[in-house]
Fold each of these.
Amino acid sequence: MADPLQHVHFVAICGTGMGSLAGLLRARGLRITGSDEGLYPPMSTALAEWGIPVVEGFRAENITDTAPDLVVIGNAVGPDNPEARCAIDEGFRVLSFPDALFDLAIAGHHSVVVAGTHGKTTTTALVGQILQATGRDPSLLVGGYSFDFAGSFREGAGEHFVVEGDEYDTVFFDKTPKFLHYGARTAIITSVEFDHADIYRDLEHVKAAFRALVAGMPADGTLVAAVGSEAVRDVLRDAPCRVIGYGLDATGAPDWTAHDVDVSEAGTAFVAVHGDGRRVAVSVPLFGRFNAENALAALVTVDALGVPLAEAAKVLHDFRGIKRRQEVRGEAGGVLVIDDFAHHPTAVRGTVEAVRSRYSGRRIVAVFEPRTNTSRRAVFQQSYAEAFDLADRVVVALPPQGALYSATGEVGETFSPERLVADIRARGGAAEQPGDVDAIVQHLAATCEPGDVVLVMSNGAFGNIWERLLQAFGG
């Protein structure tokens, strides 16, 4: 009997999760089509390599002319999207991305969901790589390009499916957090902070989402959590399953701690110690205390899944990392250019600290694009100024044009790059706001010196500033 699911169409296919699921299904031999607006690498390139045609722009004809067996709708799509509207009104089978991911890929597996405000992508890749390298043959879907897996997904024959669990809402017709749809049996909570200001009012609203994740865990499940955070400890109350705490120090009485954390040119080393006396030396080619904590989280998780500590620690030593996480784009004229996804002030602070530790003695020039719905609001205005304390110079880009979306109906004041510059200067730092991308490239080309490290932090395409900087420095 033929498989009834032969053709799947993705509305807003170029999101990392949507594109990755599309690629996974294409690898099974299904016909995959998709549409989106504003196509740009790396996902547009990956989709082309996988042989998935993408139509630019949304039109009802993209549905009616091909009559797919299933239409998957991404959360970037609104209720007035012509393809989503057509699919629903004409009675096509429709699923949100999280429900499609569960139904078509996760169901039947031991679901390992990696959640938290920060560190999800790296920790997901770390857990997946340990399971793969120790012979567990996991499936994986991660919100970034993993150098170890040469992509953002894999389909294995093992029992585990490791997935990055986002707290963002699911789709316009289902406003629950994505991570509630993945049937977590093991879950990691790396951190809980206020973010996604377009859908959450405040930290308490965010906590409510994570409390729902905790409450939905099965009695025989496992929660691995960064208990050094008061907010994490708060959402763990009344957990119905086993909780294993971890942290870099004794705050929150974790089961696992990291002792003797040491940073060198090769990466970060520490000793993972359990309260029962078990211990293992860890060396991972990542930088920053937050990455040490990510590595510890992965180690604790796979230990709970039955992977011997020594085997797991050996894998961490060879981890290759994630694209756009402290990724070296190149060096020209003696100036190193690094690309990082950091946009929340906690991530910005951690990334600057990590780059400072990796390139000790070199001048760090931080370039920041406030592009997300959260960073374009004034909610973290002062926190951003403090986040750049370890940078030698800061260049602030103009926020993108356009109105801010808010499901809560609350926007208030918007972020001011001019005020950030003033606040950094008031703290004794050096900061400037030259203008658009062209002006930033010209400014840095005129002021950077051999030995400088330019750390670009943005979660978008940023006018391909990385390559333009390298051309300018090498010219």
Note: The chain has three domains: 7-99, 108-316, 327-474.
Amino acid sequence: MKSIRLFLIAVILATITLFNFIAALQGYRSSLLEAERLFDTQMMETAEFIADLYSENLLAPVDHAGNRVFQVWKNGELKAYSANAPIMAIAPLLPGFNFSNFDGYRWRTVARYDNQKQLWVLVAERTDRRYSLSENLILESFIPILMGLPVVGLLIWFIVSQGLKPLRTLADELGKKQPDDLSPLCFDAPKQELEQIVYSTNLLMGRLESSLNREKQFASDAAHELRTPISVLKVQLYNIAQLLPDEDSNLPELTETVDRLEHLVEQILVLYRTTPDQYSANFTRIDMGILTEEVLAQEYAQFEDKNQTLEFRGKPYVLSGDRFAITTLLQNLLSNASKYTPCGGHINVKVCDEQGDIVLTVEDSGPGIPLDEYQSVFERFYRSRGDRHNSGESGCGLGLAIVKHIVELHHAEITIAPSSFESGTAFRIRFPKQKTSMDT
């Protein structure tokens, strides 16, 4: 059971119900014994009453109605009996209580000897009727207990709810915090049981804030500090290139390595900027169709170098988002598609409206991604073990991780599927309905 309140109510109510059941069972048994004692007392009093009323002039049988039968025996002869009594003795002529069977029923009997009149009085009562009467009386006393269980349940619910109110207040305070809010909890006069929780939570938040600040400072400082030596290195490589002969093959490899290092530094900076719990997005109205066309124009050179066919279909659709982040998302998706699509391959980009959502699709005719790696490719520094990894293209493994962060930043959804080509991958990003259409 996920709810603490429901768990406590269920356990307490079950405990009370079990206790009442055991108490009722014990009370039922005790009440039956007491009822038996009372009925036996009444039977003995009835026998005494009959003995007092009996006289030699009494005619037999006596017209007697009720659940009891009686007989009067004297000197071995039946002197008087009720109309519903048999002519044989209904019980042994021994003082005390016993059981007997006659007339198709089980009877409780009592025999009393009157010394003064020297006669036996036998009285019998049907056991089924006396048990039925006893049970009815006992069950009527238990009905209020059963009917009171719902009231007890409501009372328990109210008490438990009041007892858990401070915990619910604490949960509300935690729920109001933004992802980047690591300030201590302001919880006035917490209950004794919550003091340790509040203290530990504030202590944890303080540690998290210190850790995040250190990570932020390190990533920012490292990336910025690396920019300067990389820029100097590129200048030095350019100067060296003027001194070396054109047929030297070492310099292009070195230049490519420096470019890869510069790309890695830039991706680290972008990754930090687009982390949802650290990034303060400046959302504006963005025309997704026009922005996609602009990014395609800026990145067209890389497609042209590999003689790749680029096709774009889309209309102007406006959404609310961060322009820099969306531009970075498009650049990384296009760069990823171009990188793993062979020369002369095909890349399709589409912006459309599906049930009010804006959907961006980028698909290529590359080797594709294995199905079991669809989620892994969004992890930082992950490189696929499939054909894409063996394509010979360099990469830092951060491009799709950045795309994933930007998608989360905009509360969108990204999925991977096989492309419409014979091979390849299609990335689909569905932006929610926080936009207006500008179809023309």
Note: The longest helix spans residues 192-243.
Amino acid sequence: MSYTVAQIAEKVRGEVQGDGEVELVGLAPADVARPGDLTFAENETYLAAAEQSQATAILVPTTNPGSSKILIRVANPRVAFARVAALFSPPEPVSAGIHPSSTISPAAVVDPTAHVGPYCQVRAGARVGARSVLLGGNHIGRDVRIGDDVCLHENVVIYRGAEVGDRVIIHAGTVIGSDGYGYVFDEGRHQKVPQIGKVILQADVEIGANAAIDRGALGATIVGEGTKIDNLVHIAHNVVIGRHCLIMGQVGFAGSTRVGDYSVVASQSGISGHLNIGRQAVIGAKSGVMRDIPDGGRVLGIPASPDRQAKRQMIAVQQLPELLRRVRELESQVRALTAHPKVSVKSSHDRGD
């Protein structure tokens, strides 16, 4: 599939510098771009590489001074890049219908426009919405509600009662609605607390591969509209994630924590239970969060503290070897003064070394 430069500029609300009728057949980074490709340059470094490449045209900011190549000037090159990528890499088409190897309960409802791939199971009371896609090996539990235009990649499992909103994407191997980690100690044993709540995924959520979102113990575990969750994330029972959050890989949330809208949690962070993470909070990578974070708060470290404080502590730790060296030197001088009280000893610092 190809598009003219002018057609792409119209899609991304850009302005063409050069021949708008030239055909573009693909999108590629500068180092592997070939004639007919569009590449991307949001700063001078990328632009220099794009200029040297074989790419036919370049997506650039509106402030770009010019180029020998065809340019499409846009307000935000990253947003434009995402829109163009969707043009050149549309979703793989699937046809409506149910594969003969799949098992659909007579008490389930699958919209006639939906696609159910091989070896799926849809249990009683479940509903699968219009144009939704189950690619294969999916298990849809009792009374699950799947909205319109949902895509479940291979081997996604959705336990009973979960609600999946419109346009949700869930990648391979993810489990939605498994039991929360709830036990009480009684008569010398850990007794399981039945987990009778559910999971609600609101519209436009995307969840990466091999993630796990536990059902609520009583109420619901909720992931808000537009939130994007990376691979290998665990969300425990009764956690509530706000709208349009970014949750990166290998993050874990303990139970009943609440995360405000537009927050960002970077990779390999752990968030303790029953906390309130404010709106537009930012949690840096590898942080251990043990206290509430206010709206707009930025934290880092283990235990997590305000990011400026954490960075000062990190710098101080890096200076410890030099500090220890100086302490040993001072101890040596003290011993020398004690042994020879009339001898004057100057430190290397005083001598100007």
Note: The chain has six helices and 40 strands.
